[in-house]
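[User] At your convenience, examine this fold.
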Amino acid sequence: MKNRMLMLGVVLVVVGLCGSSALALTPMGPPMAGLKQGQSSVGFDFSYSEMDVEVSGLGISETLDDVESFAYLANLSYGITDDWEAFIRLGLTDVESEEFDGSSEFAYGFGTKVTFEQKDAVTWGGLFQMTWAKSDDSLTGYVPGYGIVTADIEIDFYEIQIAVGPTYELNDTTSIYGGPFLHFIDGDLDVSVLGVTGSLDVEQESVFGGYIGLSKEIDENTNLGLEYQFTNDAQAIGFRLVHKF
């Protein structure tokens, strides 16, 4: 009972101070296959996101507002057919807030894009991507009956994004894209202090969202993209640089 009360006190300190975790909306790009069969590409994605997340467990249920995070991801894609491509991504996630300065940690994931139909300047398609990441830090706060204590925090999570929509060619070098998407987060926030360890569940506040992006051809094989994503409780801005070979 003593350990449980101590952990609850520490969790309340963490929830009150932290307000941040290694959670990020990551760039999706056009919801369509962009490679021919046997073609490959390498790319780099950057995103800054802000969202509200739900934290529950150990007898509490709280919402962490305005979670901020950064993602830096390298991508390698391959065209399985003219209408289907798959990719893997590797990189880092980083977290910053007033009280929480999470470490830059390894992130990885995979995904796939499919073209459904192409007619004139409009191409319809969809995508699925999944990313795993984590972050850790230490927080110090006051717990009644124990004084100033330091809590070690580690967040481990995965994120799923599913989108469908059109890509419209404005001209030979520029396209706009977007549509609705689903966003899922599932993870654990582990707290350890004075030899006592507890775990909280972390998940997204909103599932449904939308996004819009602009893709510009720099040369015959290189594209630069900028996009904005949003749900009722989250938003993100990101850019993508992709080179085909």
